[in-house]
């Protein structure tokens, strides 16, 4: 497809992936049931949706120890390497309380306070995501959040995935609930007999989880409403089609609604890429999911220039963007909208998912036009500090009174005038 054809599709044919109203009705009912019935509702929904009858909603220390034995030492070492890199990157995002004295008798500042409590949703379902544990927990801990809880669906045996449990143990999270879906979000937002109420909920999930986060927002804070995963590759003649195909399939395997887009200036590359995708897809373990994702959301777009390619990227505003072009660092200034940017042939998106260090919780569905990756800044709040001496207030009193009177807020004006008189 050409660049103009793809641009028309972006503008006129946004795909609606779910029956939104049906999901809304179901989620609203789940939230109400959890608020009214607490743990009883959580147990009932787990039996209904996960086909598991729970007697305990929390993970025990014994289950965590058993999980560590199952996963093996090589996984633990890999997780520890990832933790080191993720910590190193997010340490740079720390924000400090600061004060300044712009003039005599005036002190202004900002107080940074960590959130009291955070709930992290870790998906189960089609796959387990220990990396989600790391990416959400580590910045919260660096920010100084004291109470961190994880909630995640159970497996068929009634236990939590051992890789998820081990990742949680490695980052020091002890409170883990065996609850998934919209009911888990409701429990974190409002609390039950077992699940503690939090002030913010973070983490990705399916359409029902995303909808539940939308409905509880305002009663608690949330990170974002995340949609299906996305990758966009911009490639010129220097790109390796084998690498590009592998990277596109790496996102397509997430689920059938994931999108994998390549924008290239080369017809030859486009042909080679299409052949590689077909060949690699045949041997993929998650072939059924990948085939549906590629058929429905996959695109290879041929543009007349890289300038046109970057224009499409900025309109698409993808979650993940790979610049597989010559001198990619020089092209960085062309990109305005992307959740994360990967430069060159040897910086695949999977590197960012697991080990590089930057957060992999990224804005999707075009929201990178106005939002950012999850970070330490998402787990703190800021309070302004203002102090004026009597003399300093007197110097600006007339200006405040003038503005207050112009707004018709005469009591505001009086609160200044009464001090000026004294």
From TrEMBL:
Annotated keywords: Amino-acid biosynthesis, Histidine biosynthesis, Metal-binding, NAD, Oxidoreductase, Zinc
One Pfam family recorded for the sequence: Histidinol_dh
Reactions it catalyzes: L-histidinol + 2 NAD(+) + H2O = L-histidine + 2 NADH + 3 H(+)
Entry binding sites for substrate: 229, 251, 254, 320, 353, 407, 412
Enzyme class at the top of the EC tree: oxidoreductase
PROSITE patterns assigned: HISOL_DEHYDROGENASE
Superkingdom classification of source: Bacteria
Cofactor annotation: Zn(2+)
Binding site for Zn(2+): 251, 254, 353, 412
GO biological process, alphabetically ordered: L-histidine biosynthetic process
Keyword flag Chaperone: no
Chain positions recorded as NAD(+) binding sites: 121, 183, 206
Purpose: Catalyzes the sequential NAD-dependent oxidations of L-histidinol to L-histidinaldehyde and then to L-histidine.
Protein name (record): Histidinol dehydrogenase
Annotated organism of origin: Sporosarcina ureilytica
